[in-house]
Amino acid sequence: MKARTLRELVEHDVDLAARTTLALPARAALYARIKSVAHLAKLGGHGTRRRFILGGGSNLVMRSDFDGLMLHIAITGRRLIGEDGDAWYVRAGAGENWHDLVTWTLAQGWPGLENLALIPGTVGAAPIQNIGAYGLELSERFHSLEAIDLPSGKTLRLDRQACRFAYRSSLFKEEGWHLDGQRVITWVTFRLPKAWSAQTAYADLADELDRQAIARPTGQQIAEAVVAIRRRKLPDPALLPNAGSFFHNPIVDAAFAERLAAAHPRLPRYVQADGRVKLAAAWLIEQSGWKGRCLGRVGMYEKQALVLVNHGGATGSEVIALATAVQAAVRERFAIELTPEPVIL
Ligand code: NAP
């Protein structure tokens, strides 16, 4: 398709409430839906206004109106681009819905992404925080990606090592690609190994498969189990607006975790490869009295304390007030600083 002119691409004064899963009232001064790399090349270094890259809008808190250009990345397409004795290589556009990609690869007979089923958001956003769930991280299935540097118009190609993936982090997160609006991920290639094995160590997943009496699950069955768990535990943004997990799971040093466990014997602890210890933010919030509790029109979800929900008509300030209150409660009880996961704009 021929790229349209810049003037045709950019809309003015656009309502963002329906474009973000927390549904907070906010407007963008300028908004462009970008369907191809050619569209991006047209935008190039145009204008000096602030920019923000919008994917699925599932990890974003709009505190107020955005007085800049919101670039909604809607580049779609997915296909097998190669295969060797070890793996299938699948390339997908940054605007593809993440869960649709997971479902489609499984339907093709290429397992590997099943533990990451039903994570909200787009393919292009997935590498930024190295999405992970039920014992699998995107980095384990990642091959490479393409991005465009808007001011120079240059295409960047990054392999797995260059992306510096870490727990819910990456080069993109470290360098603030998701904040500066200058560098845009356009296509991502996944490597799905043919020597597949089920990853079912997480208790929730193992319990669900047990409940269904599945001893040797396929990728498809794992995806279905993950979907069932998530549907039970997490609110559907179409019915109860939310931005998924609102805080990172804190990682603390071993000595601190031990002291904390002495005072709180039921504290869930997960030792990391580097010896530090990951704690469950949901548990800390629940123990601090915030599970299912509201402040104004927002609250921490009754079935999963890590999810901040908008009960209807809330504003960005109410979200910040609740997040601040939860942080203060966890700090007071556990001396731990929770950090928000979504971008607060
Ligand atoms: P959960 O299963 O209740 O787990 C709570 C915490 O315990 C998480 O920190 C989890 O680590 C950890 N954990 C549980 N079993 C573990 C094990 N066997 N080994 C190591 N760590 C273990 O969490 P949830 O809130 O209901 O979420 C379910 C899954 O979806 C989690 O894996 C969560 O991280 C993931 N998730 C990912 C995203 C994202 O990537 N954007 C958003 C929402 C939820 P992990 O967090 O490391 O798994």
Quaternary state of this entry equals single chain
Query: Care to count the β-strands?
Result: 20
CATH architectural name of the largest domain: 2-Layer Sandwich
Average pLDDT figure: 94
Question: How much helix, percentage-wise, in residues?
Answer: 25-40%
* Cα-atom radius of gyration: 21 Å
The CATH C-level class name of the largest domain: Alpha Beta
Bound molecules: NADP nicotinamide-adenine-dinucleotide phosphate
How would you describe this protein?
This protein is an alpha+beta fold and 345 residues long. It folds into four domains: 68 residues, Uridine Diphospho-n-acetylenolpyruvylglucosamine Reductase, domain 2 (2-Layer Sandwich), CATH 3.30.43; 116 residues, Uridine Diphospho-n-acetylenolpyruvylglucosamine Reductase, domain 3, CATH 3.30.465.10; 31 residues, no CATH class; 103 residues, UDP-N-acetylenolpyruvoylglucosamine reductase, C-terminal domain (Uridine Diphospho-n-acetylenolpyruvylglucosamine Reductase, domain 1, Alpha-Beta Complex), CATH 3.90.78.10. Helices cover 26% and strands 27% of the residues. The strands form six sheets. Strands 6-7-12-10-11 form a five-stranded antiparallel beta sheet. It has a four-stranded mixed beta sheet with strand order 1-2-5-3. α6 crosses α7. The two termini are 33 Å apart. The mean pLDDT is 94. NADP nicotinamide-adenine-dinucleotide phosphate binds next to β8, α6 and β13.
